[in-house]
Specification:
This protein is of the alpha+beta class. The protein folds into 2 domains: 68 residues; 183 residues, Glucose Permease (Domain IIA) (Distorted Sandwich), CATH 2.70.70.10. The protein is built from 7 helices and 14 strands. The strands form 3 sheets. Strands 3, 6, 7, 8, 9, 10, 11, 12, 13 and 14 form a 10-stranded antiparallel beta sheet that branches. Strands 1-2 form a two-stranded antiparallel sheet. Strands 4-5 form a two-stranded antiparallel ribbon. Helix 1 runs parallel beside helix 2.
Length: 313
């Protein structure tokens, strides 16, 4: 027998009856749907949160791995920097020692470092080989133009032997008998070869050399070269004499650098054996610039027999 409850309500509007069994069934039905929906939402939320947690954990693991790798790289970098620092300190000490040694060499050969000049450039200037020295000695007047037997009149102020008044002597008078052979002291071009009345030098030879140098040979008896001719170091150019304003046979020898007179004696005595002395004695010449200009030139001189005999003597 199907049991159910009926609720009767009497009011001013009349009598109303409610079947309690159907009401309870509907309530339970809606409650079940609500709980089921709530359960599904809860399960979905839990699954979503679990997935989010897994993804966050994966990101955390990746970050920790990257952090550990970065720590390792940083440790290696610090170790490398420390080794580099130690190496730099050692190199700095070596460079300081090298610079000090180079400064001694530069002082010895008369070179002064130029501002902002690198150590490599300074070394390249200082390490001139014997062939490079020979290049400089052949391009710039060096050695005696005659067999050296001393000098009769020095460079500088003196009483002129014929004018009997004090004048500046632009050259050096080398002692030589009449018709002593004269040889070019450097490669050059003959600028003048003949009698030079206005200077008082009589028969005069002027040789023009590289880098602004000129050499003068005065009071000659005979000239064996011509103007415009190219001559080599050691080549015979004339013979000594007593022409012009002269009081006896000798060779008046001058050296000029860009119209400035230089003391020829330093150049007469300039050889491979005392190569460095001229850098200290002759201050009117920018030797460092000249050495830079000739440092990459290789010179193969053709020495004459006469010059070889002079050098041997």
């Amino acid at each position: 027998m199907d049991r159910h409850f009926t609720v009767t309500i009497h009011d001013e509007n009349g009598v109303r009856q409610f079947n309690l069994h159907k009401f309870v069934k509907k309530a339970l039905y809606y409650a079940a749907i609500f709980l089921l929906t709530l359960a599904m939402i809860a399960v979905g939320t839990i699954l979503y949160l679990n997935d989010s947690v897994d993804r966050m954990q994966l990101k955390k693991d990746n970050i920790e791995t990257a952090y550990n790798d970065l720590q390792t790289q940083n440790s290696n970098l610090m170790e490398s920097m420390q080794k580099t620092q130690v190496s730099l300190v050692a190199k700095k000490e070596e460079l300081e020692e090298l610079s000090d040694s180079l400064a001694e060499i530069e002082q010895m050969i008369g070179l002064k470092p130029i501002d902002n000049e690198t150590l490599e450039e300074r070394v390249s200037l200082a390490k001139l080989s014997s062939s490079q020295r020979l290049t400089l000695l052949n391009l710039i007047p060096s050695g005696s133009p005659v067999e050296y037997n001393g000098i009769t009149s020095k460079f500088g102020y003196r009483i002129h032997p014929t004018l009997n008044r004090e004048e500046f002597h632009r050259g050096t008078d080398l002692k030589a008998a009449m018709n002593t052979p004269i040889y070019a002291t450097a490669d050059g071009l003959v600028e003048w070869a003949g009698f030079h009345k206005s200077s008082g030098y009589g028969n005069l030879i002027i040789l023009e050399h590289v880098y602004g140098f000129k050499s003068y040979f005065g009071h000659l008896n005979k000239i064996v070269i011509k103007s415009g001719q190219f001559v080599k170091k050691g080549q015979l150019i004339g013979y000594t004499g007593n022409s012009g304003m002269s009081n006896g046979p000798h060779l008046h020898y001058e050296i000029r650098f860009i119209h400035r007179v230089l003391n020829p004696y330093y150049f007469v005595k300039w050889t491979q054996q005392n190569y460095n002395e001229i850098f200290e004695k002759e201050k009117k010449v920018p030797w460092q610039s000249l050495i830079t200009a000739t440092s990459r030139i290789t010179y193969q001189p053709i020495l004459t027999q006469q010059l070889s005999q002079l050098e041997q003597r």
